[in-house]
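Re: the request from the purification team.
They wanted to know what the chain is likely to look like in 3D before they choose a buffer screen. I agreed to run a prediction and write the result into the notebook, where they can find it.
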Amino acid sequence: MNIRYRNVFLYVLIVIIPTVFGSFFFLLNAVEHSDEDRLDEARWTGSIHQRSWDQLISETVTTLEMLSMTAGTFNTDPKNLESLLQQALQLDPRYGGIYLLDRTGKVLSGSNQFFTDSDHLDKEYIKEVYRTKDIVISNTPDTLSNGQTVIGIGKPVLNEEGELLSIIAAHMRVDYVQNIMRLLTPDAKLSVLNFEGKPIMDINMDGDSSFSDQNSISIPIDRLPWTIKVELPKRKVLDIIQDAAQYILFLIIISHILFLLIKYWNLKKQTENEKKENELQKLELVGTLAASTAHEIRNPLTGIRGLVQLLSEKYTNTHDQYYFSVINNEISRINEIVSEFLILGKPTAQKKETIDLRNIIKELEPLIISEANLHNVRFLTFLPDKPAEADCNKDQIKQVLLNITKNAFESMHNGGDLTIKLSRLPSKAQIKIIDTGSGIPEGEIEKIFTPFYTSKDTGTGLGLVVCRRILQSFGGEIFITSKEDQGTQVDIFLPIHKHKG
């Protein structure tokens, strides 16, 4: 996939999609919180009016009870109550009138003339008072002759035997109650409904007396069979957006940070892959050159070595022999470099056999001990009791171990310890080669497997590269850790041979 399209795809996957779905989620969450706040506000509004109505009814009942007790003590003309009813009306502006009715519904006495023109036994709440002999509030508003809308409340006047003597009727002014309710909650829209669900009065409805049940709540009035239906406040879109925006912004920042981290990780991985590819290309180039030129190099070298041998037999002078030995050493060095080239050029087609790694180390012990004695180094080996078999090439594994021990000896200028420890792990064999030499500087650790890189004056820079190439051809790995002036540890891992059956 093209890098540009891959970055676009990654951006869509890491930033765009989470931001879209996250924004949708946060907006829904903000709307839900807003709806909860609206519901709480509507409940608060309804509870205020619920308490207001309960208080209003309690005070009205108290007033009517006092008037009914007073009316029950009058044995004279009911007209004597008129001044008392007028006084009660003047003291409490919530009433549109207070009246005394006889058993037939005729007004005996009243605080004004708006209710005295006819019998009122046909009114439902008056009939209910006669039937129940208890206080009753009208379920529907009435309109007086002066155009005033009121709600009737009736209280029976009983004698000592519980017989109905008369009825005290009071008219509660709807406009007064509405004004009180508007003062309590000037912005709330609500209705007071009777037990049939029909509106008795509306507050701030602007001529529209209906709103949906989904957009309102109903709160019952304790002392009346009525309910207060409160419309939920409108959603504050700006507040919802502001509430969701902070979370959406946080999500955008986090998703972009994650995108940059993943992109950085991809770039780092891509750089490592390109580095490996470059190394492989170098090795492939070296292998190609080695395969095409190895024989051409070795053929003249063989001729040169033969002629030098003949000349060394002819010229036996000490100085001449010294020169011949130098020439032979350099020819051997050229042959060694060509051999390493050939190994680099053959990453596959290895001749493998199952070998116990303990035997390889034992066979190398005399050579390593001899070299250790020359460098004043103490050599130690630790081998497991059980076989550690691996599928590899015996000579090439020996070459790897000798190459690494050679580097170890060269790093221990003043003697030290060289330890080879073979361990059998569940699926791998591990060979540890530990020295107490000068170590490798931290800045050079990453370069030691780079072809042609060397810190030695006479090195080719191919020794460790060849070692890793050999081990990789057998499915193995090599790792080097080192601290300057403390020593180096080389860990070699080879897959354990799996026996069939």
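For the purification team: The first strand starts at residue 95 and ends at 101.
Please add any questions underneath this entry.
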